[in-house]
Specification:
six-stranded antiparallel barrel, RND_pump_MFP, OB fold (Dihydrolipoamide Acetyltransferase, E2P), 3 helices, Elongation Factor Tu (Ef-tu), domain 3, alpha+beta, Beta-barrel_RND_2, 22 strands, efflux transmembrane transporter activity, conserved putative lor/sdh protein from methanococcus maripaludis s2 fold
Length: 339
């Protein structure tokens, strides 16, 4: 008996079970940012300083570029002086009107003189307001000699240097909003109807192979590409906790319930032959002996690391999951205890 046991193959077994069929669907996509901007200056001018470079993270409102403001400051000083003179003239016109109104009561001056002085007040006021508006315009123009970040993000491109003359409409910096990133993936048309908003997705990055990030489906864009016959699915995930940047490639892995139950076996139980046959080894217990028998099966889809079996097995059967590489038909085996 000890000699017979020494010839037995040592195997690990499991019972065939019936479980819900949940299909694992990997979809490939690219990390995108919600905003990508080509920044331009609002007025023409000479660059005196560039405070941002490629790769810099900047906060909203940060000064990215400055242009020469000497002539603009001189213009502002001239307008400010003109505004002060206009205000003084307006104040004097009002004083003259008050004096005229007092004199007309004593018939010291004719009434048409008072009317002329009232008109002079209106003219002086209009002139003062015109100059105030010009001064405000110049202040706004002066502020536009600085380019500020419209939102927090990363500078992705720089196209301007100190000493260059810039004109409105020409991009000088590009930046992306990296605060909240998305993964946009193409979805085959046969999968698209099975996806729902807020469905959980596991995100795996090619650059971070050891990390699985939990995300969720934010939006489904049913605009089918006539060439690829695919639509777009947008997945949101926590990008702040990982070194993720726009442009990275990744997979969104969905687990889609098929609504059916079927035979499930561990992946390691399958033995695949070069001619395409797929088999498992069935454990048979007879008269105290434990032997194995080969059973051809028809595998289905992968279900959470296991394999669906479409035909060839029944629930409750005992099959070999480890040690099945070199078994022979009718060979005696010893079952290894997991404990």
């Amino acid at each position: 008996m000890p000699q017979a046991l020494a010839q037995d193959a040592i195997v690990t077994t499991a019972r065939v079970t019936v479980e819900p069929i949940v299909e694992t669907v990997p979809l490939t996509g690219t990390v995108t940012a919600p905003r990508h901007s080509a920044l331009s200056v609002a007025v023409a001018g000479l660059v005196t300083a560039v405070h941002a470079d490629i790769g810099d993270r900047v906060e909203a409102g940060a000064v990215l570029l400055e242009m020469d403001t000497e002539l603009e400051h001189l213009t502002l000083d001239r307008l400010a002086a003109a505004t002060r003179a206009a205000r003084a003239a307006y104040d004097e016109a009002r004083r003259q009107l008050r004096v005229g109104e007092a004199l007309v009561q004593r018939r010291g001056i004719p009434e048409n003189e008072v009317e002329a002085r009232a008109a002079a007040v209106r003219i002086a006021k209009a002139e003062m307001e015109r100059l105030q508006a010009e001064e405000a315009f110049q202040l706004a123009r002066l502020a536009r000699h600085r380019l500020v970040a419209p939102y927090a993000g990363i500078v992705s491109r720089r196209m301007a240097n100190v000493g260059e003359w810039l004109t409105p409409g020409t991009a000088v910096l590009e930046m992306v909003d990296a605060g909240r990133l998305f993964l946009d993936v193409r979805v085959p048309q046969e999968v698209f109807p099975r996806i729902a908003p807020d469905m959980q997705a596991t995100v795996r990055f090619d650059a971070l192979p050891d990390k699985n990030i939990v995300g969720s489906v934010q939006a489904l864009i049913p605009v089918s590409d006539p060439e690829s016959r695919a639509a777009i699915m947008r997945v949101v995930f926590d990008a702040a906790s990982h070194r993720v940047v726009p442009g990275m490639s990744a997979q969104a892995i969905l687990r889609l319930d098929t609504g059916t139950r079927d035979i499930i076996v561990p992946r390691d139980a399958l033995v695949r032959f070069p001619d395409g046959r797929v088999a498992v080894w069935i454990v048979e217990r007879t008269n105290g002996e434990i032997r194995v028998s080969e059973r051809l099966i028809r595998p289905g889809i992968t279900v959470n690391g296991s394999i669906q079996v479409l035909s060839g097995l029944e629930a409750g059967m005992e099959i070999v999951t480890r040690g099945n590489e070199s078994l022979r038909e009718g060979q005696a085996v010893t079952i290894r205890s997991d404990s």
